[in-house]
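I hope you will forgive my troubling you with a question about protein structure. I set the record out below, with my sincere thanks for your time.
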Amino acid sequence: MLKNSFFLILALTAQPVLSQNVKQEVVNYQYIQLPMSPVDKSISNYQSKITASYIEENNRKTAEYESEKALAQEEYDRKMAAYPAAVAAADAAFANEMKAYNEKSLAEKVVEKQLLNENTKPVKRVPPRPYLRTVAKPKLQKIYDFEALAGTYLNIDGFENSTGNAINVDVTINGFEYTKPVRKSEKKKYISNGTTSYKTYYWNEMTYRHTMSVRVTDPSGNQLMFVTPSELNNYTTYKTKSSEKTVAINEEQLVSDLEQKILQSNLEFIQNLVNDEVGYKRTDRKGSSFYVKEKKGEYTDILVAYNESTSGLKMLVDNEEAAKSEISRALVAYENALLEAEPNNKKARIGKKVTLPLYFSMIECYWAIGNMDRVDELMNELNTMPLVRRDKTKKEEYQALVADTKARLKANGL
């Protein structure tokens, strides 16, 4: 009996336990996102332009400035023309006063000085020379090369930038707004070796924004979208790095730098909105894949599938046919591996550590090649499994992706 028990224990301990060093990887690739509001297939061109709503206000301020400068010059010229006569009159008045003063006797002059307690000798009063009144320059919104900006930042993926039967993208920019930079401070408490000390830190802070709107119309002038993004209405806060010393700030340079930065950022935001609606957007994606790191060759099929799927995903936009072929080969291996899946068996080759990454990789690949039916099946199976928070989050991200994809497929009649 004891001998049999020994062999039973030996048999149990001899069973192989696979060490699964699963490496989950992010695959960076691109795919073509379908539009939510597709236009007729006969439309292949687009035209984009940018206009500034503040041009008229700039012109009004400039006109007022020039008018005020002209008035100041007119006033100056008139006063300068009259100045020689005013100087001559002052000289004549002084000469007459001096003549009358010199005709007085010394006794008269002494009495006048004692009575008036001042020297009554005339003083020449020279009229002040006229000066040109300074007119402050108005603060104007910056004028850009709008054509160049539109050519750089307002492109629709999947369409040619050309005239004739074109989608029209019209963006209106409303100008850079900001609050004057202010100096702020904060006192911080430090305790070291039982000693309390305080330090004051200073920084400069300001807020800014650059609002915009976009209108998209088809070749017939029918409006496809019009939006003033609320995201661009919010002010952004800028802070300099805090320091124990006060830091001077070049307001003019700072404003110029921030204006250029937010202009580019907001135009890119607008471009994404337009492409999301009507473009065939070349979209960056961080996909999910995995392999098992080991030396015995027990997961060679997974490694080969990982390499094939990764290669296929990375060429999805530039060579769709070859990409789908690579991904499909990987999916054959993944499907075979899934048949072995035993999530509750730690000793299984495709145990829990491998099963979940396998599901996510398969969903990624089937989604990439457009097999939404199989994606739904895998998502439903995944819904029956207990997941930790990280995997729940990942599943929810796929659910959002799938829902968005289905909405776009439906919008495009697919």
About this structure: The chain has a mean pLDDT of 90. The chain is about 45% helix and 20% strand. Residues 291 and 302 are 6 Å apart (CA to CA). The longest strand covers residues 195-217.
